Amino acid sequence: LSAAFSIIPPLCQSSDLPKSLTDITENGEKAPSLACRRGFLVKGLSLLSVSTLLSQGPQAANAFENRLDDKYVDVTPQTGTQPTDLGHLERASRTKGSYTGLKQCGTSPNCWCSSVPFSDSPARFIPAWEGKAIQDVKKVIDTYEVGQNGVDGGGFEIIDYNEGDKYIYVQFQSYKNGYIDDFECWYNPLSQKFDVRSASRIGMSDLGVNAKRLEYIGGRLEKEFGWKLERRKNG
Question: Where are the alpha helices (DSSP H) in 66-208?
């Protein structure tokens, strides 16, 4: 806050000195000019704004508004870094040369993806979903049950939704530590199915969080919109 004071110029300049007796108050003191009084009010409000911003702290900006409650809102969230190569792109394939789709999973068991060729990552592969419209996915996300099955208590936010592109990108946050997971769904015109990806940004194991999220979203799409999901037979 002291730094804020250092950048504020003096409230009144020499031009505000009284030029006649009409500028003197009844008790003999100089009466500040109207411009000076206005400047005082503006600078006072500026100081108030700076003080308010400093008192809010960084946590509020990193918490989703639809989280379960504010119990852990003062804990510094472990958000990790948002990947810069999300979306459907042409990507390198270890076994097929290349493919167009969502980002492949890394080596950590905290990610599932249906875009990458099965031969590239059989342990992290899930079959694509057969459905009707990306709007169905949006409706499920809009009514997503925060904290379902003990996950995503920190809430969520739709970051990108494009009906024309048939794509949606959502960030989900854990309740206590504020871990951010990235969820994507995109209609692949080649397979005529919806590719999905759900991945944690940091850590090794996700304790089954991404699988629970995919099962919740996919299960509702099956029940409410008639989608068809082929589940992994070996977990």
Answer: 134-142
Q: What is the pLDDT of residues 23-59, one digit of tens each?
A: 444 444 444 444 444 443 344 434 434 344 333 333 3
**If DSSP codes are grouped into helix, strand and coil, which group holds residue 5?**
helix
Q: What sign for the dihedral angle of Cα 77, 70, 214, 102? A: negative
Q: 209-225 and 134-142 are packed helices; what angle lies between their axes, rounded to 10 degrees?
A: 110
pTM of the model: 0.74
How distant is the alpha carbon of residue 140 from its chain centre?
18
Question: How far is 33 from 36, CA to CA, in rounded Å?
Answer: 5
Is the separation of the CB atoms in 109 and 209 below 8 Å?
no
Structure-token pair, residue 15:
């031009």
pLDDT at 233: 75
Which residue in the block uniquely carries the two structure tokens 């996915």? 137
Pseudo-torsion of CA 49, 173, 89, 119, nearest 10°?
160
